[in-house]
Write a structure and sequence with these properties.
Structural class: alpha/beta
Strand content: 15-25%
Order of helices and strands: HHEEEHEEHEHEHEHEEEH
CATH topology of the largest domain: TIM Barrel
Shape: globular
CATH superfamily of the largest domain: Glycosidases
Number of domains: 2
Strand order of the largest sheet: 3-4-6-7-8-9-10-11
Number of helices: 8
CATH architecture of the largest domain: Alpha-Beta Barrel
Length: 258
Protein backbone atom coordinates (compact mmCIF):
# COMPACT_ATOMS: atom_id res chain seq x y z
CA UNK A 1 0.00 0.00 0.00
CA UNK A 2 2.79 2.42 0.85
CA UNK A 3 4.44 1.70 -2.49
CA UNK A 4 1.10 2.18 -4.28
CA UNK A 5 0.53 5.54 -2.57
CA UNK A 6 4.09 6.63 -3.41
CA UNK A 7 3.54 5.82 -7.09
CA UNK A 8 0.25 7.77 -7.13
CA UNK A 9 1.99 10.79 -5.54
CA UNK A 10 4.80 10.74 -8.15
CA UNK A 11 2.32 10.58 -11.03
CA UNK A 12 0.38 13.50 -9.57
CA UNK A 13 3.54 15.63 -9.30
CA UNK A 14 4.54 14.83 -12.89
CA UNK A 15 1.12 15.77 -14.25
CA UNK A 16 1.16 19.01 -12.27
CA UNK A 17 4.58 19.95 -13.68
CA UNK A 18 3.50 19.30 -17.28
CA UNK A 19 0.38 21.43 -16.86
CA UNK A 20 2.47 24.29 -15.47
CA UNK A 21 4.97 24.05 -18.36
CA UNK A 22 2.19 24.09 -20.97
CA UNK A 23 0.59 27.09 -19.33
CA UNK A 24 3.86 29.07 -19.32
CA UNK A 25 4.62 28.16 -22.94
CA UNK A 26 1.20 29.32 -24.11
CA UNK A 27 1.52 32.60 -22.23
CA UNK A 28 4.95 33.31 -23.69
CA UNK A 29 3.83 32.43 -27.20
CA UNK A 30 1.08 35.03 -27.01
CA UNK A 31 3.44 37.87 -26.17
CA UNK A 32 4.29 40.03 -29.21
CA UNK A 33 7.83 40.93 -30.19
CA UNK A 34 7.91 44.59 -29.11
CA UNK A 35 10.40 45.71 -31.75
CA UNK A 36 8.42 44.20 -34.59
CA UNK A 37 4.83 44.52 -33.39
CA UNK A 38 4.88 48.19 -32.47
CA UNK A 39 4.17 50.80 -35.12
CA UNK A 40 2.15 48.37 -37.23
CA UNK A 41 0.29 50.79 -39.44
CA UNK A 42 0.41 50.28 -43.20
CA UNK A 43 -0.61 47.49 -45.54
CA UNK A 44 2.06 44.82 -45.21
CA UNK A 45 0.27 41.90 -46.78
CA UNK A 46 3.17 39.53 -47.37
CA UNK A 47 5.50 37.57 -45.13
CA UNK A 48 9.07 38.81 -44.97
CA UNK A 49 11.62 36.41 -43.53
CA UNK A 50 15.13 37.22 -42.33
CA UNK A 51 16.02 33.61 -41.41
CA UNK A 52 15.50 34.21 -37.69
CA UNK A 53 12.03 35.75 -37.62
CA UNK A 54 9.10 36.44 -39.88
CA UNK A 55 7.74 39.96 -39.92
CA UNK A 56 4.05 40.14 -40.70
CA UNK A 57 2.19 43.45 -40.68
CA UNK A 58 5.26 45.25 -39.32
CA UNK A 59 4.53 48.69 -40.67
CA UNK A 60 6.22 50.37 -43.60
CA UNK A 61 8.88 47.94 -44.77
CA UNK A 62 11.39 48.36 -47.58
CA UNK A 63 14.51 46.86 -49.12
CA UNK A 64 17.75 48.19 -50.58
CA UNK A 65 19.30 46.61 -53.64
CA UNK A 66 22.27 46.73 -55.98
CA UNK A 67 23.68 44.69 -58.84
CA UNK A 68 24.41 41.88 -56.37
CA UNK A 69 20.71 40.94 -56.29
CA UNK A 70 20.71 40.33 -60.05
CA UNK A 71 17.42 40.63 -61.92
CA UNK A 72 14.55 41.58 -59.60
CA UNK A 73 10.81 41.16 -60.14
CA UNK A 74 9.56 44.33 -58.48
CA UNK A 75 5.91 43.44 -59.10
CA UNK A 76 6.39 40.42 -56.82
CA UNK A 77 8.36 42.57 -54.37
CA UNK A 78 5.44 44.97 -54.07
CA UNK A 79 2.94 42.12 -53.76
CA UNK A 80 5.03 40.75 -50.87
CA UNK A 81 4.22 43.87 -48.84
CA UNK A 82 7.27 46.01 -49.62
CA UNK A 83 6.53 49.75 -49.77
CA UNK A 84 9.83 51.29 -50.88
CA UNK A 85 13.20 50.47 -52.42
CA UNK A 86 16.56 52.19 -52.07
CA UNK A 87 18.74 51.48 -55.11
CA UNK A 88 22.53 51.79 -55.13
CA UNK A 89 23.54 54.32 -57.77
CA UNK A 90 27.18 55.31 -57.37
CA UNK A 91 30.36 54.93 -55.39
CA UNK A 92 33.27 57.33 -55.19
CA UNK A 93 34.04 59.54 -58.19
CA UNK A 94 33.59 57.12 -61.11
CA UNK A 95 31.72 53.93 -60.19
CA UNK A 96 28.09 53.59 -61.30
CA UNK A 97 26.08 50.47 -60.47
CA UNK A 98 25.43 48.55 -63.69
CA UNK A 99 21.90 47.60 -62.56
CA UNK A 100 20.87 51.03 -61.28
CA UNK A 101 18.89 52.29 -64.26
CA UNK A 102 16.98 49.03 -64.73
CA UNK A 103 16.28 48.65 -60.99
CA UNK A 104 15.22 52.26 -60.56
CA UNK A 105 12.92 52.23 -63.58
CA UNK A 106 11.34 48.85 -62.79
CA UNK A 107 10.73 49.72 -59.13
CA UNK A 108 9.04 52.98 -60.13
CA UNK A 109 6.91 51.19 -62.72
CA UNK A 110 5.81 48.67 -60.07
CA UNK A 111 4.46 51.52 -57.95
CA UNK A 112 7.07 51.41 -55.19
CA UNK A 113 8.45 54.53 -53.55
CA UNK A 114 12.05 54.73 -54.73
CA UNK A 115 15.26 56.30 -53.56
CA UNK A 116 18.92 56.20 -54.58
CA UNK A 117 22.10 56.08 -52.54
CA UNK A 118 25.76 56.90 -53.00
CA UNK A 119 28.55 55.01 -51.24
CA UNK A 120 30.82 57.78 -50.01
CA UNK A 121 34.58 57.24 -50.31
CA UNK A 122 36.45 59.35 -47.78
CA UNK A 123 39.60 59.44 -49.91
CA UNK A 124 37.82 60.90 -52.97
CA UNK A 125 36.98 64.51 -53.72
CA UNK A 126 33.45 65.27 -52.43
CA UNK A 127 32.43 67.49 -55.35
CA UNK A 128 33.48 64.92 -57.94
CA UNK A 129 31.52 62.31 -55.97
CA UNK A 130 28.53 64.65 -55.98
CA UNK A 131 28.76 65.06 -59.75
CA UNK A 132 28.98 61.30 -60.22
CA UNK A 133 25.69 60.87 -58.36
CA UNK A 134 23.73 63.83 -59.70
CA UNK A 135 24.72 63.10 -63.32
CA UNK A 136 23.16 59.65 -63.00
CA UNK A 137 20.24 60.03 -60.58
CA UNK A 138 17.11 61.87 -61.68
CA UNK A 139 14.80 62.13 -58.66
CA UNK A 140 11.21 63.27 -59.06
CA UNK A 141 8.43 64.49 -56.75
CA UNK A 142 7.19 61.49 -54.80
CA UNK A 143 10.66 59.91 -54.59
CA UNK A 144 12.62 59.43 -51.38
CA UNK A 145 15.39 61.89 -50.52
CA UNK A 146 18.91 61.07 -51.74
CA UNK A 147 21.06 59.00 -49.40
CA UNK A 148 24.76 59.12 -48.63
CA UNK A 149 26.16 55.87 -47.23
CA UNK A 150 29.06 56.68 -44.89
CA UNK A 151 30.45 53.62 -43.15
CA UNK A 152 34.12 53.29 -44.08
CA UNK A 153 37.16 55.44 -43.36
CA UNK A 154 40.42 55.18 -45.28
CA UNK A 155 43.74 55.80 -43.54
CA UNK A 156 44.25 59.39 -42.37
CA UNK A 157 41.05 60.54 -44.07
CA UNK A 158 39.53 62.00 -40.90
CA UNK A 159 41.57 65.22 -41.23
CA UNK A 160 39.05 66.94 -43.53
CA UNK A 161 36.30 64.37 -43.06
CA UNK A 162 33.63 66.68 -41.62
CA UNK A 163 34.34 69.49 -44.06
CA UNK A 164 34.23 67.17 -47.07
CA UNK A 165 31.07 65.34 -46.03
CA UNK A 166 29.36 68.65 -45.37
CA UNK A 167 30.29 69.83 -48.86
CA UNK A 168 28.78 66.67 -50.33
CA UNK A 169 25.59 66.96 -48.27
CA UNK A 170 25.19 70.65 -49.11
CA UNK A 171 25.55 69.85 -52.80
CA UNK A 172 22.89 67.14 -52.61
CA UNK A 173 20.45 69.41 -50.82
CA UNK A 174 21.03 72.24 -53.27
CA UNK A 175 20.54 69.96 -56.27
CA UNK A 176 17.47 68.01 -55.10
CA UNK A 177 15.92 70.70 -52.88
CA UNK A 178 15.55 68.34 -49.90
CA UNK A 179 17.68 67.37 -46.91
CA UNK A 180 19.59 64.15 -47.64
CA UNK A 181 19.49 61.02 -45.50
CA UNK A 182 22.65 59.65 -43.87
CA UNK A 183 23.15 55.88 -43.74
CA UNK A 184 25.64 54.53 -41.22
CA UNK A 185 26.23 52.10 -38.36
CA UNK A 186 26.14 53.13 -34.72
CA UNK A 187 29.84 52.63 -34.01
CA UNK A 188 31.04 54.54 -37.05
CA UNK A 189 28.52 57.32 -36.44
CA UNK A 190 29.57 57.67 -32.80
CA UNK A 191 33.23 57.88 -33.73
CA UNK A 192 33.14 60.18 -36.75
CA UNK A 193 29.87 61.84 -37.74
CA UNK A 194 27.91 62.96 -34.67
CA UNK A 195 28.21 66.47 -36.14
CA UNK A 196 25.51 65.53 -38.66
CA UNK A 197 22.84 64.49 -36.18
CA UNK A 198 20.38 67.03 -37.62
CA UNK A 199 20.14 64.89 -40.77
CA UNK A 200 17.63 62.04 -41.07
CA UNK A 201 19.30 58.78 -40.04
CA UNK A 202 19.12 55.41 -41.75
CA UNK A 203 20.70 53.16 -39.16
CA UNK A 204 22.22 49.74 -39.82
CA UNK A 205 21.92 47.48 -36.78
CA UNK A 206 21.24 43.75 -36.89
CA UNK A 207 21.89 42.26 -33.48
CA UNK A 208 19.12 43.84 -31.47
CA UNK A 209 15.34 43.87 -31.33
CA UNK A 210 15.32 47.65 -31.44
CA UNK A 211 18.00 50.05 -32.74
CA UNK A 212 20.27 51.98 -30.38
CA UNK A 213 20.78 55.55 -31.54
CA UNK A 214 24.26 57.03 -32.07
CA UNK A 215 25.16 60.09 -30.04
CA UNK A 216 23.43 63.28 -31.10
CA UNK A 217 20.45 61.74 -32.87
CA UNK A 218 17.13 61.64 -31.03
CA UNK A 219 15.37 59.41 -33.58
CA UNK A 220 16.02 57.09 -36.49
CA UNK A 221 14.13 57.46 -39.76
CA UNK A 222 14.98 54.10 -41.34
CA UNK A 223 16.37 50.99 -39.67
CA UNK A 224 18.18 48.31 -41.66
CA UNK A 225 17.49 45.39 -39.34
CA UNK A 226 18.52 42.47 -41.55
CA UNK A 227 21.03 41.63 -44.27
CA UNK A 228 19.51 38.22 -44.95
CA UNK A 229 15.89 38.91 -45.84
CA UNK A 230 13.96 36.58 -48.12
CA UNK A 231 11.53 38.48 -50.35
CA UNK A 232 9.40 37.22 -53.23
CA UNK A 233 10.87 38.59 -56.45
CA UNK A 234 14.47 38.69 -55.17
CA UNK A 235 16.84 35.77 -55.61
CA UNK A 236 18.94 35.20 -52.50
CA UNK A 237 19.40 37.49 -49.51
CA UNK A 238 18.44 41.14 -49.46
CA UNK A 239 18.69 43.96 -46.91
CA UNK A 240 15.38 44.69 -45.17
CA UNK A 241 14.47 48.04 -43.63
CA UNK A 242 11.73 49.59 -41.57
CA UNK A 243 10.44 53.16 -41.54
CA UNK A 244 9.95 54.79 -38.14
CA UNK A 245 6.44 56.16 -38.50
CA UNK A 246 3.03 55.84 -40.08
CA UNK A 247 2.02 56.25 -43.71
CA UNK A 248 1.15 59.94 -43.34
CA UNK A 249 4.59 60.82 -41.99
CA UNK A 250 6.24 58.62 -44.62
CA UNK A 251 4.52 60.61 -47.34
CA UNK A 252 5.76 63.82 -45.70
CA UNK A 253 9.42 62.88 -46.14
CA UNK A 254 9.07 62.35 -49.91
CA UNK A 255 10.30 64.96 -52.38
CA UNK A 256 7.59 67.55 -52.97
CA UNK A 257 9.06 69.56 -55.83
CA UNK A 258 12.35 70.19 -57.60
Amino acid sequence: MRIYLLVIACITLLLSGCMSLNSNTSANASKPNDALSSNTSGNTSGNISDNSKTIVGSGITGIDVSRYQGEIDFEKVKAAGIHYVFVRATEGITYQDSHFKDNFSAARKAGLAIGAYHFYETDDDPIRQLNNFTNLVDLQPGDLPPVVDIEKLHDNDNINLIKNIQAYLDGLEQHYKIKPIIYSGKNFANKYITTFSDYPLWLAEYQSLYPTLPQGWNKWTFWQFSQSGKIDGVIGDVDVNRYNGEEASFNNILIKSL
